[in-house]
């Protein structure tokens, strides 16, 4: 399982693993892939500094990457308090009423009320500044092309830039902006995702950007067979996120690990929904009573990013603390139907590689 990306990044396998957990990212890098740490959860640059220092020290000198959330066009942005003043009262009342109906208790006074501020442009900028003090070899942007000065600064540091694309025209725009690697994220993926499925999107993007721009296939990939399929469609590697949520190293990310494990191990591939309730942009989440409440008659329409995230931030913290698998709010792709047990990252990586190799051998016999 090698491609030019392996030589470009000094990795054994072209498996790029997006994860909010530094422990997962480090384990993937140690196992021969490229762990990519999601930075959106860090409100405190000092915490991100500590985590990246830990990654520097716990990856056996193997490479790793980071993922930021930064729109190309710099928004007009005041303080988080200014933004919160733009949230309608009806939305606030709906969230509180829904949490009460679902039996989600309030948090202890003073806990978890700030929410995640990493969706704000200014915070994402601070994430980049911290990352450049460490040794990531790759920086991915979850909202497409980052601003031109960010791309230039990363290139000056010898860091390659990746950007997610849900359509061929978006991929072409990224290349024109100086992005090095396109992540073709299909409809099946968890988190922010477009409307075109991976089987169609990956070859569309590969053909659009041409042979000189590497493409990572993303969305619906959770096995060696699916990695082989993505690379058969022209991708030079894969971008995987959901699968790592079911690993031992992911435990400890929050106080809802028991509820989350119950929720994903019993879920089928039909138990997700693409909705704007999480951030204000279309994102695929686990289908629960929380997402269903937003789809009921009379529910308000989700607000645009970043207002929706600010609206539901405390609610998500309360849901997490409640540890209820019927309510939990979590981005995850349709691959959740294959996540039936919790396993260590090294074992997952070994199985991915083994099944990929077995698949290629089987296809060789067919072609022969």
Key traits:
single chain; 368 residues; alpha/beta; TIM Barrel; eight-stranded parallel barrel; three-stranded antiparallel sheet; 14 helices; 11 strands; 41% helix; globular
Concise summary:
This protein is of the alpha/beta class and about 375 residues long. About 40% of the residues lie in helices and about 15% in strands.
Task: Tell me about this structure.
By secondary structure, this protein is of the alpha/beta class. The chain has a single domain (4-367), classed as Aldolase class I (TIM Barrel, Alpha-Beta Barrel). Helices cover 41% and strands 13% of the residues. It has 14 helices and 11 strands. The protein has an 8-stranded parallel β-barrel with strand order 1-2-3-4-5-6-8-9, surrounded by 6 helices. Helix 3 packs parallel to helix 6 (121-131). It is globular, with a radius of gyration of 20 Å.
């Amino acid at each position: 399982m090698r491609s030019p990306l392996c030589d470009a990044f000094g990795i054994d396998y072209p498996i790029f693993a997006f994860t909010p957990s530094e422990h997962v990212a480090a384990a993937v890098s140690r196992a021969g892939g490229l762990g990519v740490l999601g930075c959106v959860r860090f409100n405190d640059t000092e915490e991100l500094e500590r985590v990246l220092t830990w990654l520097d020290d716990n990856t056996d000198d193997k490479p790793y990457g980071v993922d930021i959330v930064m729109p190309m066009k710099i928004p007009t942005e005041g303080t988080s308090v200014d933004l919160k003043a733009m949230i309608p009262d009806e939305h606030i009342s709906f969230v509180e009423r829904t949490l009460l109906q679902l039996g989600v208790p309030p948090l202890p006074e003073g806990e978890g009320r700030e929410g995640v501020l990493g969706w704000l442009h200014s915070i994402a900028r601070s994430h980049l500044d911290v990352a450049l003090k460490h040794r990531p070899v790759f920086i991915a942007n979850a909202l497409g092309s980052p601003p031109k000065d960010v791309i230039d600064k990363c290139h000056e540091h010898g860091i390659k830039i990746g950007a997610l694309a849900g359509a061929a025209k978006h991929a072409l725009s990224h290349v024109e902006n100086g992005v090095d690697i396109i992540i073709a994220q299909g409809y099946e993926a968890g988190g922010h995702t477009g409307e075109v499925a991976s089987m169609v999107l990956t070859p569309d993007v590969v053909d659009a950007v041409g042979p000189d721009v590497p493409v990572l296939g993303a969305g619906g990939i959770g096995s060696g067979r699916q990695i082989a399929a993505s690379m058969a469609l022209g991708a030079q590697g894969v971008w995987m996120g959901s699968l790592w949520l079911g690993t031992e190293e992911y435990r400890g990310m929050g106080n809802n690990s028991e509820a989350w494990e119950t929720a994903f191990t019993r879920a089928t591939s039909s138990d997700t929904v693409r909705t704007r309730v999480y951030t204000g942009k279309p994102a695929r989440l686990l289908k629960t009573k929380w997402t269903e409440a937003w789809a009921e008659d009379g529910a308000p329409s989700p607000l645009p990013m970043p207002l929706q995230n600010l609206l539901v931030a405390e609610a998500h913290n309360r849901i997490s603390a409640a540890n209820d698998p019927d309510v939990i709010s979590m981005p995850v792709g349709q691959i959740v139907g294959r996540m039936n047990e919790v396993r260590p990252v090294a074992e997952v990586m070994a199985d991915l590689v083994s099944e990929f190799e077995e698949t290629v051998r089987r296809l060789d016999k067919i072609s022969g």
